[in-house]
Write a structure and sequence with these properties.
Strand order of the largest sheet: 2-8-7-6-5-3-4
Number of helices: 13
Structural class: alpha/beta
Distance between the termini: 50 Å
Length: 395
């Protein structure tokens, strides 16, 4: 049967070579008995907080297994509002300005579907999480990427963003700390981007899923919605997935201007109706009680970052800026003489180290992404294998 696929809005999609496909290949090698070390998937390796698990179990046992309010349980929305007050000094109305979503990706999809008309442009600093491109296209929009320079630690330059703005621009999107680079913008940079949004009367979308993974005092996480004049034009997305190592729970949140909620809700309802009821109970408890778990995780991940960057810096032909946040390194490997796709493919097949080439993140050849959300022993072994592989490449 001719299914006439892909349909028009999916014609430019890349259906091969993504992170999940690489993970599947690595898992298949492991099932065949190969020693595989996973530096490809951004998935915290620590367990979800015990208090969250107990709260979810209690919710199930008490029969809390039905639909919740489509916006999310009042309990969880109140905890999200309290988090924004505590972390960003923001007064957020849990009834009018918060929606609990099926993870951060669903929140992003709901925003794009709500605010974009066909042909509207979204200015996005690159490298960026590949799903952004897919979701913008599915909503009929056009991604307008702004290349971030390795010499600037991959932090977006407000002047470059300004040059990208044109009459078709509807939205500026930022992700700080960033996936895949770990870059975290300074307050001054965020203030300059906020000024652009205001002077051009643009909406702002801030992906803050890595907000707690900020390792350096010079680059603290700052929610751009907390800056003067920004709350009324900013959509802020985050989730329990990374902060609390709850990726499989699929609970995120969207904080938005109150005037947009009824429109957001139409898209949210059509995508997932409501987030999982007992998972919401667990996330609410995590937001109340699991911060010691988060602090321990951040301390450990900073050690892992330092270990990975130290080992990468000793490899000839590899240039790696020190990431300020998230749990990724994004080295430039153009000096190794191999296309990044070939380098990563051979690294996996010959050494069992699974990584991701840079092109899926919206930039040119010559880069790769590695995650350090693995135990230090695995990071050491993986980078020892990679270092040996690099040393054997002809120059």
């Amino acid at each position: 049967m001719n299914f006439k696929l892909p349909v028009e809005r999916m014609r430019e999609f890349n259906f091969e070579g993504g992170i999940r496909e690489i993970l599947a290949q690595a898992d298949e090698m492991a099932r065949a008995g190969r020693s595989v070390l996973h530096l490809e998937i951004g998935r915290p390796d620590l367990d979800s907080p015990e208090c969250a698990k107990r709260a979810a179990i209690k919710a199930i046992e008490s029969g809390d297994v039905h639909y919740t309010d489509m916006s999310g349980t009042p309990e969880l929305r109140a905890e999200v509002a309290a988090k924004f007050k505590r972390d960003a000094g923001m007064n957020v109305n849990p009834e009018r300005e918060i929606v609990i979503t099926g993870g951060a990706v669903e929140a992003l999809a709901s925003v794009f579907l709500t605010v974009l008309n066909p042909g509207d442009e979204v200015v996005v600093p690159a490298p960026y999480f590949p799903v952004y491109d897919d979701l913008i296209k599915l909503a009929g929009g056009v991604i307008h990427s702004v290349r971030c320079k390795i010499e600037n630690g991959f932090r977006p330059d407000p002047a470059d963003i300004e040059r990208a703005i044109n009459p078709r621009t509807r939205l500026i999107m930022i992700n700080s700390p960033n996936n895949p680079t770990g870059a975290a913008s300074t307050r001054e940079e965020l203030e300059a981007i906020a000024a652009l949004a205001q002077s051009h009367d643009l909406l702002m979308l801030s992906d803050e899923c890595y907000e707690k993974f900020a390792y350096d005092e010079k680059y603290p996480h700052i929610s751009i919605a907390s800056l003067p004049g920004m709350k009324e034009r900013t959509f802020t997305v985050s989730a329990a997935s990374k902060t609390f190592s709850m990726t499989g729970w699929r609970v995120g949140w969207l904080v938005m201007p109150a005037e947009t909620k009824k429109f957001i809700m139409k898209c949210h309802q059509g995508i997932c109706t409501c987030a999982n009821s007992f998972a919401q109970a667990g996330v609410a408890e995590a937001l109340r009680s699991a911060w010691p778990d988060v602090e321990r995780m951040i301390t450990e991940y900073k050690k892992r970052r330092d270990l990975m960057i130290d080992m990468l810096s000793k490899m000839d032909g590899i240039e790696t800026p020190k990431p300020n946040g998230a749990f990724y390194a994004f080295p430039r490997i153009a000096g190794l003489g191999l296309p990044s796709q070939e380098f990563c493919s051979r690294l996996l097949s010959e050494t069992g180290v699974s990584t991701v080439p840079g092109q899926p993140f919206g930039i040119e050849d010559g880069y790769m992404r590695l995650t350090y959300c693995r135990p230090q022993s695995e990071i050491k072994e993986a980078l020892n294998r990679m270092g040996d592989f690099v040393s054997r490449l002809p120059r």
